[in-house]
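Changelog entry

Holo records now carry the ligand SMILES as an explicit input line rather than a separate metadata file. Below, a converted record for flavin-adenine dinucleotide, shown in the new format.
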Amino acid sequence: MSFELSSEQQQIIQTAKKVAERHGPDYWYEKEENHEFPQEFFDTMGEVGFFGLGVPEEYGGSGAGLTDLIIAFEAMSSGGGGLAPVAACLLGPIFGCSAVLKLGTVEQKRKYLPDLISGKIRTCLGLTEPNAGSDTLNISTFARKEGDEYVISGQKVFISLYAESQKMLLVTRTTKRDEAPKKAFGISLFFVDVPNEAIQYTPIPKHACNYFKTYELGIEDLRVPQECLLGDEGMGWYQVLEVLNPERIYGAVGAVGLGRLAIRTAVEYANQREVFGKSIGTNQGIQFPLASAYAKLECAWLMCLKAAALYDRGGSIKEVGDATSMAKYAAVEAGVEAVHNAMLTLGGYGFAKEYHIERWWREIQLVRLAPVTQHLALSYIGEFILGMPKSY
Ligand SMILES: Cc1cc2nc3c(=O)[nH]c(=O)nc-3n(C[C@H](O)[C@H](O)[C@H](O)COP(=O)(O)OP(=O)(O)OC[C@H]3O[C@@H](n4cnc5c(N)ncnc54)[C@H](O)[C@@H]3O)c2cc1C
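Structure line, unchanged by the conversion:
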């Protein structure tokens, strides 16, 4: 076991920090206020090759892995971006690259990976449905086979960046839940071209992270060729975990990065702000909550690295899922505590937009409920790690 970073990883962090200097809190403040997609940041990701960190060299990536990817995104996040670099970029390395790399045929990999790495193709994830929510296996969007095509109809909700993407990883049923031998069977994944006229979309006004839009979708008779099937028909639930686990690790990384950024901001403020003739940082009531949250963030970061390392090593879905659930839960709890205490440290200025913390406080709420809620992460830990009864 080594806690040393390789020279390549140190180089990645240097690059990430430079990116964060150019796309720091003020950049994201503007994007949030103007509800504007961070195109410049996204282009930079393609230029510095970060989307390709998890992709083998034969497909144009750097061959590094998820571990290096999260090291890069944590550095951009804690370096000034907060949750934004992670939240705005899921549609690059995770929904696109991980999905095609893990589930695609050689032809699909050759066809899509170079454009996914450069950022030319953005991929959104069409999973959540109004009547399913956390009960993913209850989705009812259905893909009916008709000759060489599938005809897909259904409804999706909270689909981020649908209209800004070129591809959607669409999760459907190809066998109805009550006709499947086991409810996890009969789910299939499609890698479809979007926007498409068979898909109606409506933006959902939202609380935070307005630098990307989130939509409700109505899909009616969307015709896709057989080649759009990603992975094996009917086995999509087991296969989509190859994408959902990295997505959850990635969410955890955003919480750690944002938490570290909030603490750094609070410490700088506490050390210079004088009240009652001394810096507020000399009060244990200010210092201890920050120190406590910081310690928890560091522990959570180790769990994120472990989960990513298991994924890179080709660990089983259970091994990766266990580490991922614990990393996601712990990182989000620590991140929420960090941002909360940072906000209190700034007193009234914590409420003022120009100090950024109020925006980070809104942002961190997202990872409490997505990509999986904290409750459901605990249910997983209770059932699959502790061996307790299924609670959902
Ligand atoms: C801004 C945003 C962006 C998103 N982007 C995407 C996207 O791009 N693609 C996509 O597919 N989805 C996306 N989502 C959806 C997100 O993953 C879901 O909102 C999330 O999984 C929770 O589902 P739900 O909202 O239906 O909540 P529900 O499942 O209805 O849950 C509501 C509450 O009940 C709790 N609960 C439910 N069952 C249990 C139980 N058995 N035990 C304890 N508590 C329980 C939950 O934890 C939660 O607190 C996004 C969501 C948001 C808010």
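Spot-checked after migration. Residues 124-234 form a domain with the Butyryl-CoA Dehydrogenase, subunit A; domain 2 fold (CATH 2.40.110.10). The chain has three domains: 7-122, 124-234, 237-385.
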